[in-house]
DNA sequence: CGGTATCCGCACGGATACTG
DNA sequence: CAGTATCCGTGCGGATACCG
């Protein structure tokens, strides 16, 4: 009964699945988790440069959210200029297999989806 | 190289993974796919009643998007009053395992996430 | 019954300027 | 270097009314 995992949860905070999807589904979380999964540990500006087209605000916000959820670890070195390092927690790492398999599915089936969209468009 | 699946795609339409996540991440798609995966075939108002708190507009929009992407099949019976049946396509069904495992992960790790959030909150 | 059409609030995310 | 603070446009999704 998959649907039972979603139904009867009026608020987002009540539903585990919606809670996870709200992270997974936002614009930057998955990419950041993926990059940290590859690179291990990165500083703020290293992440910023690797992603390229993210705004500083969204990088900060997304990292904070991931940290709050216990998916990303933040190490601050109290020096000037400051140095902050980000890495995945074990909980964050446990998400990597899902991201990889979803990535694989997406690349595998994207052509079929594009064909379907084109067909749908021409029929309307 | 997971991150290579996201980087260098300036537009959403260019990136397969973002394309999939934009579906998976929206408010209703996963729930609808899950329910159709359980029930097989359902009429519009059956879906509406099963979900309960979805607006008619979003049910229509989500179903159309899923249909356009080739994940959901729509059978229209030209009669009065009209009858429309929705079901998963094979492509849509191929997403079910991912949804199930993600659901499982979410329920499994939600307590840890909630603990982490509480801890993070009290530290700020 | 299975939709459309329209209006609208709000949250997401970008741009820019500033800071310890 | 690693953020904050502020302003602002856009789009998602809800509410309501109407339609074939």
UniProtKB/TrEMBL annotation, chains A, B:
UniProt entry keywords in alphabetical sequence: DNA-binding, Transcription, Transcription regulation
Gene3D superfamilies on file: Winged helix-like DNA-binding domain superfamily/Winged helix DNA-binding domain
GO molecular function: DNA binding
Keyword Membrane on entry: no
Keyword Lipid metabolism recorded: no
Protein name, as recorded: HxlR family transcriptional regulator
Superkingdom of the source species: Bacteria
PANTHER family referenced in this protein's UniProt entry, alphabetically: TRANSCRIPTIONAL REGULATOR, MARR FAMILY, TRANSCRIPTIONAL REGULATORY PROTEIN
Residue intervals of the HTH hxlR-type domain: 15-114
Listed InterPro entries: HTH_HxlR, WH-like_DNA-bd_sf, WH_DNA-bd_sf
